[in-house]
Amino acid sequence: MRKYICEGLATYLAKEYRPWHMPGHKRKNFGDELLGEADIDMAAFSSLNDWELTIDTGIQLVQSFDVTELPETDDLHHPEDMIQKSQMQLSEIYGTLASYYMVNGSTGGILAAIGAVASIDKKTMLDSKLAISDTGKKRIIIARNCHKSVFNACEIFGLEPVYIEPEYLKLKEIGNEKKDIGTNNSYIYGDIKPLVIKELLEANQDVVAVVITSPTYEGVISDVEGIKKILEPYNIPLIVDEAHGAHLPFIDELPKSAVSLGADIVVQSLHKTLPSLTQTAILHVNNGELDGKVRKYLSMFMSSSPSYVMLCSMERAVVNSWERKTSGHGYREYLNNLKAFREKVSNLQNIKLVGATKDLDQCEGKSETDNFFAYDETRIVLYSKITGESLAKMLRDLGEIEVEMSGTNYVVLISTYKDNFKDIDRLRIVLSVIDEKIAWADMLEEERQRKSESSGDNSFSRKDLDKLVGTVAENNIYVYPPGSYIVTAGEVISQSAVDKIKELKESEKNIVGLEGV
Known about the structure:
Blueprint: H1 4-13, E1 18-20, H2 28-37, H3 48-63, H4 82-94, E2 98-102, H5 105-118, H6 122-126, E3 139-143, H7 148-157, E4 160-164, E5 172-173, E6 176-180, H8 194-203, E7 207-213, E8 220-221, H9 224-231, E9 238-241, E10 265-269, H10 270-273, E11 281-285, H11 288-301, H12 308-326, H13 332-345, E12 352-353, H14 357-360, E13 374-375, E14 379-383, H15 388-399, E15 401-403, E16 405-406, E17 410-414, H16 421-455, H17 462-466, E18 477-479, E19 485-487, H18 495-506, E20 511-512
Parallel strand pairs: 1-15, 3-4, 3-7, 7-9, 9-10
Antiparallel strand pairs: 2-11, 5-6, 8-13, 10-11, 12-14, 14-17, 16-17, 18-19, 18-20
Helix pairs in contact: 1-3, 5-7, 5-11, 8-9, 13-16, 15-16
């Protein structure tokens, strides 16, 4: 018998690709600290057999402190000792009413958060300024770029979603900074406007909550404080999916976290931007009326046998990040490295950054007409005239760089404070090489498209997709990552949705839910 997963992982790790994706520890905790203390040289591990041995050793090491609920180890679902003390410390660090560890990622937190607001009773709703409809159907305002867990929660709890469709960012045309390339070529959403929220509240009854994603996968941050002010007179809670913003509370130079801006519930994926294991997250509560309901649903959606390895990883990531913030060492070197990178990359001819340095200096507090209220400058989003898949492939083939995701014409790279000067400068050098080759690669791409169109050899039929307009979707249709639904099951498919699907298909993205089309 074979260990297929272990063998596959060993094969991959032996290739030494540089991770510009989650998890935020960038595999450096294990390699640099644990093995360093054991006097093991990671550079010596280069072959498949070496990595197989390392994986086996690592698993055995982890198993040595993989325990369960015992009299001396406490219980995550009914904490009374060390877990209770740790979660109380979390609340102190973040300044929240309560904070909870989660071992099944932000998804479990989103389900629990929406379950909590879905269970708000009629009396509480009557206390708000919104009228109660005759049908009694509860509605929830959600952004189109929310993670699929939000849509799934709406289905689970029988909530009717009211969608916010953010505007797409206007990217500058390559080679002509004075001209926008048009929103249909980016599909990068901007922020959620407070006034749009207000308009939706006035037009809809029975709204139990508003859910937004901030920062987005691409680093766009909404005016959480402004949205909360809109909601306060209506007594409607705000849930913020801050999965990609777990680092914000610790880096003062970045925009503030929703945790400190009044959001009622905030969910953060620690593994995305902090040095924590995959599948670790925290849920923060700032609303006493929701806390008991949140705990009820956390007990439903989380495993009854939580991993203590994950719990240790989360506590370690938060405490270490807090100590770095308060020790004086801070994150200045990391931010300076990123700023220097942004300035140098801005000189490239065929690759451009979303959120250029000159824009970031003035972005926070922008008006209702701008693309974003603020931007997370630690997120690296690069676009060009070639497809995002092609750019990702060039980064992988020419620089052994793995991106987090690719879009129609852009790629997303996740940086964390674990990325040092050497890592960031190496990325810059690789991009410089690609920038020189991209014109040639662009011509090849255009030639490939011309041949495909002339031969009629398409992987899908545009006419078949056009037939979907006006029909009811049988499945949820989405690209993963990021996992936001383009169309939800049961929804009437619009022309704009079909146009987006065409763009994504033509840029070589694999779309889930289009089986048979």
